[in-house]
Design brief:
Blueprint (H helix, E strand, L loop, with lengths): L4 E6 L21 H16 L4 E6 L3 H14 L3 E3 L15 H4 L21 H17 L5 E6 L1 H12 L17 E8 L5 E9 L16
Parallel strand pairs: 1-4, 2-3, 2-4
Antiparallel strand pairs: 1-5, 5-6
Helix pairs in contact: 1-2, 4-5
């Protein structure tokens, strides 16, 4: 037996009044609205009336804080999972619009297909896929929750859909505190594959008041 589903939950709004690309930087926790968003994601999982057997989160502050209401709702600890962390990025700690005006940064944007400014998309997908595979095997039954970040979740979606990785970051379908659900399916050839079984936005009503700036 393995987990029935793995739920990829994105963190809530981050307190980031200066609009910094925070990446893996410390000290960027949830805003007050972000905590409400995280609670909305926890409430959605509870309303599904499914057994949650394990909760894991990226080691960054915003994901750990977003996992807390899920942990309280299901009475489970939060284990850290390094492989679902935010990707590296050359522009971390800067305000992108200002950084792009500086010629010394231009070489980092010459190849959006890789991308040249940070961890390759292929690398992100490989570590996310490994984390998903292990998550399914980590429990005897029930579901597993992985609290992660926008880009890792989005490129995982692209990989499962068979789509190209290069994309416009403004068009990612991965809102704050959204939940992307993954299932394993056995094919006719006997091989197990991963499919996306659902996507919901429990914090949709809060989005209008949120600022979603700073993600890689």
């Amino acid at each position: 037996m393995v987990a029935s589903q793995v739920h990829l939950v994105r963190h809530g709004e981050v307190f980031n009044p200066d609009g910094i690309l925070y990446g893996r930087m410390s000290g960027f926790g949830l805003s007050k609205l972000g905590h409400r968003m995280a609670q909305a994601a926890a409430d959605d999982l509870v309303e599904r009336d499914r057994k949650i057997s394990a909760i894991m989160a990226s080691p960054l502050q915003r994901t750990r804080e977003s996992a807390k209401p899920i942990s309280l709702a299901f009475g489970l600890p939060v284990d850290l999972e390094d492989r679902v962390i935010e990707p590296t990025n050359h522009f971390e700690g800067t305000v992108m619009k200002r950084a792009l005006r500086k010629p010394r940064n231009w070489p980092y944007v010459v190849n959006p297909l890789r991308p040249s400014w940070g961890e390759p998309y292929v690398s992100i997908v490989q570590r996310m896929r490994a984390a998903l595979d292990d998550a399914f095997l980590s429990v005897d039954s029930g579901d597993v929750v992985l609290v992660s970040h926008q880009l890792p979740i989005w490129v995982t979606h692209l990989a499962l859909a068979g789509e190209r990785f290069p994309h416009d970051p403004r068009k990612r379908r991965c809102s704050l505190s959204s939940i992307t659900t993954i299932e394993q399916r056995l094919g006719d050839d006997g091989e197990t594959t991963l499919i996306e079984a659902g996507y919901v936005e429990p914090a949709r009503v809060l989005q209008a008041s949120a600022t979603d700036v700073g993600a890689v």
